[in-house]
Amino acid sequence: MEIRPTTDKDLDVFVDTLHAAFGRFPETPAEDGGGLWWSALETDRSLLAVAADGRPVGTASAYSFELTLPGEALVPAAGVTGVGVLPSHRRQGVLTAMMRHQLVELRSRGEFLSVLLASEALIYRRFGYGPATYAQQLTVARHQAAFARPRARGTAGIPATGSDAGPDAGSDTGSVELLRRAECGGILEEVYDRYRRAQPGALSRPHRWWALGAGQPPVSSAPRHVAVHRDPDGVPDGYASYSVESNTLTVDETIATDDAAFTALARFVLGHDLVTQVVFKRLPPEHPLRWQLEDFRAGQVSDDDWLWVRLLDVPRALTARGWCADGELVLDVDDPFLGEHGRYLLTVRGGEADCVPTDREPDLSLDVSDLGSVYLGGTTPSTLVRAGHVRAHRPGAAALADALFRAERPPHCLHWF
Ligand SMILES: CC(=O)SCCNC(=O)CCNC(=O)[C@H](O)C(C)(C)COP(=O)(O)OP(=O)(O)OC[C@H]1O[C@@H](n2cnc3c(N)ncnc32)[C@H](O)[C@@H]1OP(=O)(O)O
């Protein structure tokens, strides 16, 4: 078997093979050639696994994204996608060969992080990926959707997300306008881009995604209503893209650059007539919306992992992010898939880290996939110690690691790719 890069000429074969791996058929291409999820594929980052008889049997690709790290650091990240192996060739090591080829190639491009959304949770840990961000689906019965009066006294103004004071749900001084997806793509792109730069765990949505309508709504051009929130000066600062079917209003995503805009948008969709429930997809864990409702049980929550993270260069990755607490930690990191092992002294001072090889006794021993899980601050190291996956070599090591790895706000990603 050979793993080879693709060119534009291979796109049809790539798409065909990938669909066959999922047991599907490629949708009929739109006349203008856009709007399909694979239209944003980067052929120079795509791989085909070809069997000895010349037949393509596996695919893997990657997008060029920017990932926001804690401390609002924007770094390049490879978004692994389009992974599939024909049912006739499974469990013969095709994926393993493609993953190895891909990781080596990413490193040769100078990349130090790769991320993916896993179709199944059992596939990617062996390749060094760990779940790092989580998303919640909140289903609210509309008859229970009354908002509580904020209990904080003396709330002045409407602070930005992540500040300590909460927004007064009733004091929005902005406005909500109802548009169609087809008429507000530019607004969505601009608001999303502002939001993602300040949100740890968020991925960029390259302009070509919006231009092609690639991916899922509201990036795709599927018909959607869009509630656009504007600040008192008329500047868009949030949106909720939604559709209504069988008395259920489903919000694809609610993007807001502050809590007040989010609250206004939530009020807007929860106030929709002839709807019995509102489903908010892909909310960040611990989102305040449940707390804002009078009836805490009005919302039903289901949790899912979202972004999986893989470190390709531990010192570079650890020095690239910002840090909220000072301290020193010795990490002993095992990377069995790449046959590597390293021990690093992580020193954090004033929000920045230094990370160098050391032979000091370790504080924590962990697999690179577990380092991926804690990297963005969405999983505490102590959880993985308690689960038996990370070894703490001294009392207090896990608590120190928790304090160090915490992000200024829980990481969250809702971009589908
Ligand atoms: C980022 C994305 O694109 S996610 C999309 C992933 N693709 C899909 O889910 C499409 C449907 N599935 C497939 O195409 C294939 O089953 C794949 C790609 C998941 C696996 O490809 P394969 O070539 O069979 O994997 P490979 O033979 O290299 O397996 C490596 C190991 O992973 C294990 N493994 C692979 N897939 C799975 C799975 N779905 N569940 C559990 N274990 C798995 C294998 O058992 C094997 O274990 P071993 O080393 O202990 O023997």
TrEMBL record:
Sequence positions that bind acetyl-CoA: 83-85, 91-96, 119-120
Annotated GO biological process: aminoglycoside antibiotic catabolic process
Listed Pfam families: Acetyltransf_17, Acetyltransf_9, SCP2_2
Positions annotated as active site in the UniProt record: 124, 417
Record domain N-acetyltransferase: where: 1-146
InterPro entries in alphabetical order: Acetyltransf_17 (IPR041380), Acetyltransferase_Eis (IPR051554), Acyl_CoA_acyltransferase (IPR016181), Eis_dom (IPR025559), GNAT_dom (IPR000182), NAcTrfase_Eis (IPR022902), SCP2_sterol-bd_dom_sf (IPR036527)
Region listing for Disordered, in residue ranges: 152-174
GO MF term set: aminoglycoside N-acetyltransferase activity
Record keywords: Acyltransferase, Transferase
Top-rank taxon, per record: Bacteria
PANTHER family hit by this protein: N-ACETYLTRANSFERASE EIS
Entry's family note: Belongs to the acetyltransferase Eis family.
Assembly description: Homohexamer; trimer of dimers.
Name of the protein in its database record: GNAT family N-acetyltransferase
Species whose genome carries this gene: Streptomyces cinnamoneus
Upper lineage: Bacteria, Bacillati, Actinomycetota, Actinomycetes, Kitasatosporales
